[in-house]
């Protein structure tokens, strides 16, 4: 039998059942790769909660609260990014994404606006393997069949993974990434940045949505 407890002696915190359960819930909520309940729908700076959680260890809802407490509403873009890097150890690229997302959420930046201008994004999942999808972008003759006469120039490519292109009308930048989604299925994501204003961003978003529909039809039906 356990020794009798002296009057006034406290049960250690870790042994209290209610506290143990509360701590367990906290650990689960912050476990890398697991999205807290109710946070799945939040998407800022073109990045979803699951992606920002995997990369930084926190979902968007936590970053918004953390930055509010740090007084980020009154800081410049540069100072918020420095805060994320120096105090929270967020890598530079993700620091920029979290900063932009925070500014959008708090009304400090228009939707699609980034430090270097505005951006338009579009994605599509197609019934084709990732190599075939990549080739449809990389090969100029194939690309012309669905991108038509759009004036683009490939500046850099990583086989089967990504492309960086220049959109010659205005010299804006297009980043394209490719991801395998299972047997015979893949996903393409387009990020068209350095656009001059929100109107241009809306126009390019519509353009890429239509272009990716043509690409999907071409890869799946040959038309």
Outline the structure in words.
With 223 residues, the chain is α+β, with helices and mostly antiparallel strands. It folds into 2 domains: 29-109; 114-221, Alpha-D-Glucose-1,6-Bisphosphate, Chain A, domain 4. The chain contains 8 helices and 8 strands; from the N terminus they run αββααααββααββββα. The protein has helices spanning 17-30, 49-56, 60-69, 77-86, 92-105, 130-138, 140-147, 198-221, and strands at residues 43-44, 47-48, 113-114, 117-126, 152-158, 162-167, 172-182, 185-195. It has a 6-stranded antiparallel sheet with strand order 3-4-8-7-6-5, covered by helices on one side. Strands 1-2 form a two-stranded antiparallel ribbon. Strand 7 (172-182) and strand 8 form a beta hairpin. Helix 3 (60-69) packs across helix 5 and helix 4 (77-86) packs across helix 5. The protein is globular and about 55 Å long.
The largest β sheet comes out as: 6 strands, antiparallel
Beta-strand residue fraction = 15-25%
Structural class: alpha+beta
Task: Report the count of strand segments.
Answer: 8
Taking all residues together, what is the mean pLDDT?
83
What are the low-pLDDT stretches, counting only 5+ consecutive residues below 50? 11-33
Annotated CATH architecture of the largest domain = 2-Layer Sandwich
Q: Quick one: CATH superfamily of the largest domain?
A: START domain
* Helix-residue proportion: 40-55%
CATH topology label of the largest domain: Alpha-D-Glucose-1,6-Bisphosphate, Chain A, domain 4
Biggest sheet, spatial arrangement of strands: 3-4-8-7-6-5
Radius of gyration: 23 Å
